[in-house]
Amino acid sequence: MASNKAARDGEKIWKTNVDKVNAELVTLTYGTMVAQLCSDLNHKYAEVNQQLDKMGYNIGMRLIEDFFAKSGVQRCGNLKETAETISKIGFKMFLNITPTVSNWSADNKSFSLIFEENPLADFVELPNDGRAQDELWFSNIFCGILRGALEMVQMQIEAHYVSDVLRGDDSTEMRITLLRYMEDEMPPDDE
Fold first, then answer.
1. With contact defined as beta carbons under 8 Å apart, do 168 and 128 qualify?
2. Which of 86, 97, 101 is nearest to 120 (CA)?
3. In this structure, are residues 29 and 120 in contact, taking their beta carbons and an 8 Å threshold?
4. Partners of 159 in the beta sheet?
5. Could you report the per-residue pLDDT of 88-109, keeping only the tens digit for each?
6. What are phi and psi of 15, to 5 degrees?
C-alpha cells in the first residue's frame, strides 16, 4: 500500500467511519489509571510498565477486529506495508494522530514510530520522585496494543520506547522489531 494512499484512507476513515470520544476524557481517564497503577504497585515502575503492556496486549487482540471491520484494509504483504498501515490508518483511525515511520534497520525487520503528538500524554507530569523520569514509560499501553493486534495477524513483534518527551527527550520514539511470522496453528488435539 502506497504511503499517500494509506494517509488518504486513514483520513477518510477518521472522518466517516469512527465514533468519536472526547480526547480530554480519554487522556484524563488513562492518566488516572496509570496513577492508580503506580500507587497500587508502590511506584515499582518496571511492574507498572509490564501491566500497561499487558493491558494493551489484551486491547490489541480485540481492537484488530474493529480495525479490519471499519477500515476495509486487507492483510499487508510485508512489514513496510504494515508499518505504513499502523501509522497512517490505525493511529489515525483510533487517535487522530499519524506517527512518522522511520529508522528502518538494514534487514527491514525493525523500524521506529516517531510521535509528534501523543494524546495520552496531554496534561501529564511524571512523578518527581527521582525514578519515574528514568523508569516509567507512561504510554507503554501502545506497545502492548501493537503486540496484541499484530499477533492476531500472525506477526510476533517486540515493541518498546526508546525516548519520550515526558522524560525530557526531544521526541517520543517507539521501536518495533519483527521477531517472526507465526504459522496458523491448530489448537492441541484438533484435526
1. no
2. 97
3. no
4. 176
5. 999 998 888 999 999 999 999 9
6. -75, -30
